[in-house]
Amino acid sequence: MNKWFFFCLLVANCLALSAQNQQQAYLDYVETYKYVAIEEMKRGGIPASIKLAQALLESNAGRSKLSQGSNNHFGIKCGKNWEGSYAQFKDDDYKNGLLVESCFRAYNDVVESFADHTEFLRNKNKYSRYGFLFTLDPLDYKAWAYGLKDAGYATDMNYPTNLIAIIERYELYKYDYEGNVPPPPVYIGSIKSPGFIYNNQDLQRTEENNVFIQNDTKLYVPVSITTPAEIAHLLDLNVEDLLEYNEGLKDAHQKIHPGDRIYLQSKRNFNHGKELWHYVRQGETMYYISQLYGIKLDKLYHKNRMENGTEPAIGEKIKLRWRIGKDEIPRLASEIKSILPNKPMESNPDTDISQDIMPLPEQITRPKAQPPVPVKTEVIKKPTPKPKPAPTSVPKPAAKTIPAAQPIPPKSESIPPKTESIPPPVESVKPPVDSNQDGHEVSPGDTVYNLSKKYGIKPDQIREWNALSSDSIKIGQKLIIKKDK
C-alpha cells in the first residue's frame, strides 16, 4: 500500500513539474515574440493575440519538430506557388493508403514565419476564404478564433476554444490594444493656443476649446451635434473655408456629429506620419480615411489610382504617401458583392498539422492532467531550396515590399482590466557605416526581411552587422551590408 501511494505521489509530482515547464515555455515564448505580433497587427490587421495563440498552439511554443527544423511556427504548407525553402514532414497526406511526407514552408528565422503568416491570410488569391476575417473587430479575439475555424484553417473541432483558452490564460488580448493604434491627434486646446499642450489637466475640454493637430494640420472635434456655420461662428472662421477644407461638407447647415474631425486648415497632400498604408475596415470610405489622416481627398484618390467617388473593398490597402504601382490598384467595393464564405470549410490542406500541436489548454491549468507528448529526437529534413526552373527571356518581377503598419479607427468598447503598460523595445545605437563596407540607405518600404532577400543574406546577419535589437529600421538610415565580392 505504501509503495502504491509513493508511486502515485511521484507520478503527480512529475505531472505538476511537466505542467510548470510547459507554462514557463509559453511565458518565455510570449515575451520573446509579443512585439513581433504587435507590429504585424499594425501592418496587416491580424489581432496580436490570435497570432501569438496560433503560434503557441501550432509550434508548441517553438518546440515542435517542424518549428525547430524550419522556423515554421504556423504549420503553413508549401502550396502551389511557394518558391522558397521547404521541409518534408509527415502530417496528413496519404498516397495509396500510406502516410507520405508533406511539403512545409521553411524560413530563415521566426520573424519571417510571423510575417508570412500575415501574407498568407491576406493573400488576394485566398480572399474568398479568409477575407471576411478582416471585417471582424480586431479586438474581438473570440470572433477571429471561430472565424479561422469556419475558414478551414485547421481540422480540429476544438481549434477555436483552444485559441481562446490560451489567449485568456496568458492575457494575450492586452497586446491587441497596442497593435490597434490609430494615428492620434495631439490636443492643443484652443485654436488660438500658442503651442502644443500635452496632458494639461487644468485645460477644460469645452466646445470652443477642443482643437487638435493631425498631420501638421489643426482640426476641431465637436462634443455635440452642430453645423459648419455654428463651428465657423464659434471659432471666428469663414464657413466657406471649412467647406473647402472638408470635402464631405456640402453646405453650411449640414449636420455634424460628435467625434467627427473638422479641419480648420487645408489638409496635406500626403501623410507626414509613419503610416504608409491603411487597411480598409467595414464602413470606411475614402473621405473617412482622408479625415482620419488629414490628407486631401483628391490626392488620396490620385495616390491609389482610383476614380473620384469610388470606394475600396473591405480589406484593401490604401496608400497614404507615395503613388502605388499599376499592379497594386485596390479593388472596389462595387466589384466584390460579398467576401463571406458560403459555408464553413472543414479543412485547409495548406495549414493543417496535427502531430506537433500542444495538448489542450486544460492540461496546462491542472497539474494532474496528461503531460504533453514529448518531442521526438529525430531531426526533420533540413530545408533545401527547390530546383529553380530554367531561365527565360521574361525577367522575374521584383519582390513586393511588406507594407507599413495598419492604423485602425478608435473604438469605444470597454476593454479588459488594465494591465501594466508594456514599454517598446529599446533600440541600440546604430553604428555608422564603415567606408570599407558596402552600405544600403533605407528607402520607403524596406524591411530587414526584404533586404535579406535582395542581397541573399540572412536577416540575423543584417541585425548583427548593424547592432539591431529589433527589425525596426527608419527611412534614410545607413545599414552595413557585407556583400560577397
Walkthrough of the structure:
With 485 residues, this protein is an alpha+beta fold. Helices cover 32% and strands 10% of the residues. The protein folds into three domains: 221 residues, Lysozyme; 150 residues, LysM domain (Membrane-bound Lytic Murein Transglycosylase D, Chain A); 61 residues, LysM domain (Membrane-bound Lytic Murein Transglycosylase D, Chain A, Roll). It contains 15 helices and eleven strands. The strands form four sheets. A four-stranded antiparallel beta sheet has the order 3-4-5-6, covered by helices on one side. A three-stranded antiparallel beta sheet has the order 2-1-9. A two-stranded antiparallel ribbon has the order 7-8. Helix 2 packs across helix 7 and helix 6 packs antiparallel against helix 7. The longest helix has 43 residues.
Using brief descriptors, characterize the structure shown.
Membrane-bound Lytic Murein Transglycosylase D, Chain A, 11 strands, alpha+beta, Lysozyme, 485 residues, 3-stranded antiparallel beta sheet, 4-stranded antiparallel beta sheet
Kindly summarize this structure in a few lines.
It contains 15 helices and eleven strands. By secondary structure, it is of the alpha+beta class. The protein has three domains: 2-181 and 345-385, Lysozyme (Orthogonal Bundle), CATH 1.10.530; 186-335, LysM domain (Membrane-bound Lytic Murein Transglycosylase D, Chain A); 425-485, Roll (Membrane-bound Lytic Murein Transglycosylase D, Chain A).
Q: What does the overall shape look like?
A: elongated
Report the count of strand segments: 11
Q: Can you tell me the CATH topology of the largest domain?
A: Lysozyme
| Count of alpha and pi helical runs | 15
**What quaternary form is this?**
single chain
- Helix and strand string, N-terminal first? HHHEEHHHHHEEEHHEEHHEHEEHHE
The helix/strand class is alpha+beta
CATH C-level label of the largest domain: Mainly Alpha
Distance separating the two termini:
75 Å
Q: What's the story with the biggest beta sheet?
A: 4 strands, antiparallel
Strand order of the largest sheet: 3-4-5-6
- What's the mean pLDDT score? 75
Helix content class: 25-40%
* Share in β-strands: 5-15%
Cα-atom radius of gyration: 26 Å
Q: Architecture of the largest domain in CATH?
A: Orthogonal Bundle
Low-confidence stretches: 193-204, 353-437
